[in-house]
Design brief:
Elements: E1 13-18, E2 21-22, E3 25-26, E4 30-35, E5 42-48, E6 55-60
Antiparallel strand pairs: 1-4, 2-3, 5-6
């Protein structure tokens, strides 16, 4: 296992190359492209529209990160109110 403690940049792709050695003889290299996780967006805001049917969502990309697209999703939230009554015992 190897750990890179360099300052890798968020959202960038790096090529990692691994070789094995026996004395001075090296194996063929094994390579992989690895992309670091991009940083979250900044200044996220949501604005319900006056008609009640739409929501405007705005954000800014994090300038310290590289990203090439965004995925926005919405799910209906169902709220249930549960009242829990607890009986307190006096000792």
């Amino acid at each position: 296992m190897a750990t890179f403690d360099q300052k890798l940049e968020p959202g960038h792709t790096y090529t990692v190359i691994v070789k094995t050695f026996s004395g001075k003889v090296a194996s063929w290299p094994t390579t992989a492209n690895v992309t670091t996780r991009p940083l979250p967006v900044e200044n996220y805001k949501s604005h319900p529209r006056d008609d009640g049917g739409d929501i405007l969502i705005t954000w800014l990309p994090n300038p310290a990160s590289k990203q090439d697209h965004y995925r926005v999703s919405a799910n209906k939230l169902l709220l249930y109110y549960i009242y829990l009554f607890m009986e307190h015992q006096v000792k």
